[in-house]
């Protein structure tokens, strides 16, 4: 009981992860339908890479990172202390990871959508995409780099918190389910590796190289980047969640711990080897494409057997790991029907439970069997397609199918894995864990059931539609018909099935968001964000006690010195120092990070000629003026904040 109280104390803060994930899914729901509407889908398709930024990059990140990562963080923070027998290492790191992930993913999302539309519009005006991006200049490179860095910081602090919790734990206090720990830790480390790659590949020189490398560059981004995140990070974490929650649902141990261990080692080793293999192949074949002026197929042919051997062997290892995990999960499900999966919501608040006894999920009342069955079936189909699509014959067909082949791979494969496997599992586990951390029974029983049904129908429709359209349209492209003509011939039959399918998925997300909001309470959510906003501005303006002067003369001396330091430090690339000197640590820290990133990134880009039409001369007034503005604001706000008496009054008092 003491252990449960220790690890479960103040877990209500985890509810904000689920609420923020539900909010991200609402954006995903709206965009998923809008970008498939007739006219809009064609505009995005003809917008070259600008359309790709909107349809693939932005939508995938708000769905998989904005929703998926936040839920994974919350579930990991909930489960890991119960496995290690000690509270989470740092609540502060958990808060930091939440806000960095939330701000980073939404900043990254809006940057991608805005830039994709702006650059796509220039492409429609007749400019090649490379020229369009150069016309946008620093407005393209800086927002992407900054928001990616903030997002990366969220991942890195999450990984650090997980590792610190592990290293500070006592093995003697670990629970009997300690084998699950390695899934959660390996998942966090894989997400760290994925974000390191993600931050690097959005840098201007990396973006240019990947684009020039063509299909070889796609082996690195999106294929390698997606797999280390989705297979190495997300899938390993979900497997750990299944092994933790499933015995509580079924009332009996997992079918085989040996199978669980074997599935871990096959998945972890296969994902890491697949990721490294894709990186090596991408760089080697990409350099051939760029330096020798050959196409991707010839570069691949030069490597001979090495290209398919690396992909097939590592793909088979991942497939075996997934199939072993799927079999273990299905064999652990109870044969009979679950009794009373949806208990009636009590009229008054019941005592909060933090234990993990076998009957607790039944009290929470989540029909996890359906969510698990959907995610396992989707995973099974996705892994089968994954093994098939690394075959050379399959890849050649897709290359000859051109843009139609993208509907088959990566789109149909990605949607099956992301929506059918990842989100189905995470949404189900969220509905199970949220009542525990919040201390209230789940609200909205019909909405939760509707969310599951709509998600199952939507993901099935999207997968079948993308696969069928890709194969049918790809066959016509291979016959020599331009893809634009193929789209005209298909007309509404291309857009309508996808609009209907993504509308069902979007409604499922909306129903899930409504359940989360009703369980937490709209008033609670509104009050929380009001408190955070008020506390943020109060902290920005509050002068720490150690920086409060004893006289007006001392206040002016400190303000003048801070003004000089802020201006001089800003000109040298280190802003915010004046705010720190005057006791505003939050404001100074934020300014320091923002100005440091802006100053040095733009300086490096300008000196290397990567800022498009802008150069160092055009940015020099910005470098010079902004520190002066910041210093003046620091000087004025500090004197107003300390609010000392007038000199004459003070003199009479002292006399």
Topology of this structure?
Elements: H1 2-8, H2 15-34, H3 40-45, H4 49-84, H5 91-124, H6 129-136, H7 138-167, H8 181-201, H9 204-212, H10 215-250, H11 257-292, H12 296-303, H13 306-332, H14 360-364, H15 368-389, H16 392-401, H17 405-438, H18 445-478, H19 483-490, H20 492-520, H21 522-541, H22 552-571, H23 577-581, H24 585-607, H25 616-642, H26 647-654
Structure, briefly:
By secondary structure, this protein is mainly α. Helices cover 80% and strands 0% of the residues.
How would you explain this protein's 3D organization?
The protein has helices at residues 2-8, 15-34, 40-45, 49-84, 91-124, 129-136, 138-167, 181-201, 204-212, 215-250, 257-292, 296-303, 306-332, 360-364, 368-389, 392-401, 405-438, 445-478, 483-490, 492-520, 522-541, 552-571, 577-581, 585-607, 616-642, 647-654. The chain is 80% helix and 0% strand. The chain contains 26 helices and no strands. Helix 2 (15-34) runs antiparallel to helix 20, helix 13 (306-332) packs antiparallel against helix 15 and helix 16 crosses helix 18. It is globular. Mean pLDDT is 80; it is low at 337-366 and 646-655. The longest helix has 36 residues, at 49-84. It is mainly alpha-helical.
């Amino acid at each position: 009981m003491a252990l449960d109280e220790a690890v479960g104390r103040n877990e209500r803060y985890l509810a904000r992860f689920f609420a923020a994930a539900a909010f991200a899914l609402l954006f995903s729901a709206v965009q998923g339908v809008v970008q498939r509407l007739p006219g809009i889908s064609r505009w995005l398709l003809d917008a070259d890479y600008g359309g790709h930024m909107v349809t693939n990059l932005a939508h995938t990140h708000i769905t998989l990172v904005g929703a998926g990562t936040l839920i994974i963080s919350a579930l990991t923070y909930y489960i890991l202390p119960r496995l290690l027998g000690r509270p989470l290492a740092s609540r502060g790191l958990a808060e930091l990871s939440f806000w960095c992930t939330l701000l980073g993913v939404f900043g990254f999302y809006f940057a991608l959508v805005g830039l994709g539309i702006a650059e796509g519009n220039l492409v429609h005006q007749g400019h090649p995409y490379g020229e369009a991006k150069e016309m946008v200049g620093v407005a393209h490179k800086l927002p992407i780099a900054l928001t990616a860095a903030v997002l990366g910081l969220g991942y890195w602090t999450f990984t650090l918190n997980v590792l610190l919790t592990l290293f500070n734990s006592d093995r003697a206090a670990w629970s009997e389910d300690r084998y699950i720990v390695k899934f959660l830790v390996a998942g966090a480390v894989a997400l760290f590796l994925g974000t390191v790659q993600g931050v690097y590949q959005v840098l201007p020189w990396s973006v240019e190289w990947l684009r020039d490398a063509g299909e070889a560059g796609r082996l690195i981004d999106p294929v390698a980047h997606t797999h280390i995140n989705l297979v190495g990070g997300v899938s390993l974490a979900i497997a750990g969640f299944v092994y933790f929650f499933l015995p509580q649902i079924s009332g009996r141990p997992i079918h085989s711990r040996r199978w669980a261990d074997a599935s871990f080692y096959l998945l972890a080793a296969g994902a890491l080897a697949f990721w490294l293999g894709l990186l090596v192949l991408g760089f080697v074949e990409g350099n051939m494409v760029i330096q020798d002026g050959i196409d991707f197929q010839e570069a691949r042919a030069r490597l001979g057997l090495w290209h398919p051997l690396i992909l097939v062997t590592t793909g088979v290892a991942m497939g075996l790991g997934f199939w072993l995990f799927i079999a273990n999960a299905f064999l652990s499900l109870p044969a009979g029907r679950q009794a009373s999966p949806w208990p009636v919501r009590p009229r008054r608040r019941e005592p909060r439970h933090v234990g993990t006894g076998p009957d607790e999920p039944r009290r929470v009342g989540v029909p996890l069997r359906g969510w698990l069955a959907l995610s396992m079936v989707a995973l099974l189909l996705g892994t089968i397609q994954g093994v098939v699509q690394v075959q050379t014959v399959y890849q050649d067909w897709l290359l000859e199918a051109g843009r139609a082949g993208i509907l088959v791979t990566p789109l149909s494969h990605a949607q099956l894995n992301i929506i059918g496997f990842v989100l189905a599992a995470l949404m189900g586990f969220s509905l199970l864990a949220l009542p525990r951390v919040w201390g209230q029974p789940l609200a909205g029983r019909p909405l939760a059931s509707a969310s599951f049904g709509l998600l199952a129908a939507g993901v099935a429709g999207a997968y079948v539609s993308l696969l069928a359209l890709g194969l049918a349209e790809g066959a016509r492209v291979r016959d020599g018909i331009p893809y634009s003509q193929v789209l005209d011939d298909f007309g509404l039959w291309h857009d309508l099935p996808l609009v209907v399918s993504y509308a069902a998925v979007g409604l499922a997300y909306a129903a899930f968001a409504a359940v989360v909001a009703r369980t937490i309470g709209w008033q609670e959510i509104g009050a929380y964000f009001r408190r955070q906003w008020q506390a943020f501005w109060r902290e920005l303006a509050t002068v720490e006690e150690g920086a409060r002067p004893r006289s007006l003369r001392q206040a002016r001396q400190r303000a003048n010195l801070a003004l000089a330091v802020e201006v001089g430090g800003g000109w040298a690339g280190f802003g915010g120092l004046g705010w720190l000197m005057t006791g505003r640590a939050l404001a100074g820290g934020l300014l320091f990070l923002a100005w440091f990133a802006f100053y040095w990134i733009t300086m490096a880009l300008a000196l290397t000629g990567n800022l498009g039409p802008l150069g160092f001369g055009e940015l020099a007034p910005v470098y010079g003026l902004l520190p002066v503005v910041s210093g003046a604001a620091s000087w004025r706000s500090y004197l107003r904040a300390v609010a000392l008496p007038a000199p004459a009054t003070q003199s009479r008092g002292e006399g």
